[in-house]
Amino acid sequence: MLALDLCRRNLLRLHFGQDWSERDGWFGRLAAGDDWSEAAWRTPGGILFVPHGASAPDEVPAALYDARWLAGELERLALPAACRLLLDTPGVPGPARSQAMAAADRVLVVLAPEPVSCGLLRPLEVELRRHGIGPDRLLFVLNGFDPSRQLDRDVELLLRETLAERLAPLPVCRDEAVREALAMQQLLPDYAPYSQAVDDFLQLAAWLAVRLAAGTEGR
Amino acid sequence: MSARLTRCLLACGWVRHPDDARSLVALLLSLFFVPPADGWRAWARRSRCYFPHVNFDRPGPADLVRVALQCLWLLTVRSPQGRSKAGSTWLDWSRAAAQRARDRAGRVALTVQRRFPGLFGPDRLRAGVEHAALHPLWDHRLVRYASYALALLLAVVCISTPFGVASQALFVLLLFAVALWVNRLPGPVPTLILIVFSITVSTRYMWWRVSATINDDTMANLIASLILLGAELYAWLVLLLGFFQASWMLRRRVVALPADSSRWPSVDVFIPTYNEPLRVLKPTVLAARAIDWPRDRLGVYILDDGGREEVRRFAAEAGVGYIARERHDHAKAGNINHALTLTDGEYVAIFDCDHIPARSFLQVAMGGFLKDERLALVQTPHHFFSPDPFERNLQTFRKVPNEGELFYGRVQDGNDLWNATFFCGSCAVLRRGPLEEIGGIAVETVTEDAHTSLKLHRRGYHSAYLNVVQAAGLATESLSAHIGQRIRWARGMTQIFRTDNPLFGRGLSLAQRLCYSNAMLHFLYGVPRVVFLTAPLAFLLLHAYTIYAPALAILLYVLPHMVFATLTNSRMHGRFRRSFWGEIYETVLAWYITLPTTIALLFPKLGKFNVTAKGGLVEQSYFDWGITKPYLVLMLLNVVGVLAGVYRLATGPADEVGTVLVNMAWTGYNLFLLGAALAVAKEARQVRVAHRIPARLPLTLHLPDGKCLPCHTIDYSEGGMAIELPQPLKLAPDSPLSVSMRRSGRSFAFPCRTVFVRGTRLSLRFAGLTLEQEMDLVQCTFARADAWLRDEERQPERSAVDGLRDIFRLGWTGYRLLLAQGLESTSPRRARWSRAARRVASLLPRQPVFPLEGHS
Question: In whole angstroms, what separates CA B89 from the centre of its chain?
Answer without folding.
Answer: 37
